[in-house]
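Hi everyone, sorry if this is the wrong subforum. Our group has a chain we'd like a structural model of before ordering constructs, and none of us has done structure prediction before. Sequence below.
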Amino acid sequence: MTIIHQRPPLITEVVATSDRVVYADVNVPDTIADGEEYFIGKVLVTTDGGKTFDALEEESWVSSGVDYDTGDIVYHNGHVYTSLVENNLVEPGTDATKWQDDGAWNANGVLMENIDKTSTCAVLVSGIVVESNLRGYDPNMRQTLFNNKIFMQ
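Answer:
Right subforum, don't worry. Here is the predicted structure as tokens:
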């Protein structure tokens, strides 16, 4: 059987204009699977002023066919939520007795290098990116990226 691998995007396919780039540590979890490197265009967040960046590792909430158990963590509508009950089928953000809102996931960076382990690399913090070529991107991140001076094309 032939396995077809999609090549990672080129910087010119992701970044249309780079107004501001910082060099920072990008944390890649030890549990990342082979072939799932962080590629150019990975959406990131920093909470320490740009010294370190992390990617969203939580799965997006699924509206049907999945029931969540106590402690399960999901991303939904720009926020991260933790399930407070077993067999949770309720949409996060609609019932505070079922989901704890852990806060907004404030996307504010885009990776500009391919990496497969934690390392120092270039992160776009202001500029124009090609929305369709972002990785780990959810349309609910658009406003936070815009607020943080990363614009979509």
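For your construct planning: The CA atoms of residues 12 and 105 lie 26 Å apart. Strands lie at 15-27, 43-45, 52-55, 59-60, 73-76, 79-83, 99-104, 109-111, 119-129, 150-152.
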